[in-house]
Amino acid sequence: MSDSFEISTILPTSPKRIYEAWLNGDEHSAMTGGAAKVDPSIGGQYSAWDNYITGTTIELEPYRRIVQSWRTTEFPPDQPDSRLEIVLEEVDGGTQLTLKHSGIPEGQGPGYKSGWDENYFDPMREYFA
């Protein structure tokens, strides 16, 4: 059995701006505070938070959706990567970012759910303010 969850937030900028920042290593680092490297193409590898997070970009719909494989150094070695889907929708006041995270090792979901809030959504709200 694996864990999964969906969370969302409103960020005070355009979907285009978030999409481009997510897929740019320097901007990803700046918006989260953790070192990131990103190959912004389908099949491209990425890492974030000083290699704590690694994965591959699976699907891209420019300015609307990003799908990536995702794992941390806390995943058991035999555990397959989880699936991360970022959906961007323009709303009053900016962009609603909905994050769907599935295939997480059982029991680790709650920690990652709070981690997304603390290590991504909070700093991103400041970065894009």
Tell me briefly what this model is.
With 129 residues, the protein is α+β, with helices and mostly antiparallel strands.
Report on this model:
- This protein has 129 residues and is an alpha+beta fold.
- The protein contains 3 helices and 7 strands.
- It has helices spanning 15-22, 25-32, 109-128, and strands at residues 2-11, 37-38, 45-48, 53-61, 65-72, 82-91, 94-105.
- A 7-stranded antiparallel β-sheet has the order 1-7-6-5-4-3-2, covered by helices on one side.
- It is globular.
- The model has no long low-confidence stretch (mean pLDDT 97).
**What's the CATH class, please?**
Alpha Beta
Main beta-sheet annotation = 7 strands, antiparallel
Distance between the termini: 39 Å
Q: CATH superfamily, please?
A: START domain
Low-confidence stretches: none
Radius of gyration, Cα only, in angstroms? 14 Å
**Which strand order spans the largest sheet, edge to edge or round the barrel?**
1-7-6-5-4-3-2
**Number of discrete domains:** 1
Rough outline:
globular
CATH architecture: 2-Layer Sandwich
CATH topology: Alpha-D-Glucose-1,6-Bisphosphate, Chain A, domain 4
Features:
alpha+beta; 129 residues; Alpha-D-Glucose-1,6-Bisphosphate, Chain A, domain 4; seven-stranded antiparallel β-sheet; 43% strand
SSE layout and pairing:
Elements: E1 2-11, H1 15-22, H2 25-32, E2 37-38, E3 45-48, E4 53-61, E5 65-72, E6 82-91, E7 94-105, H3 109-128
Antiparallel strand pairs: 1-7, 2-3, 3-4, 4-5, 5-6, 6-7
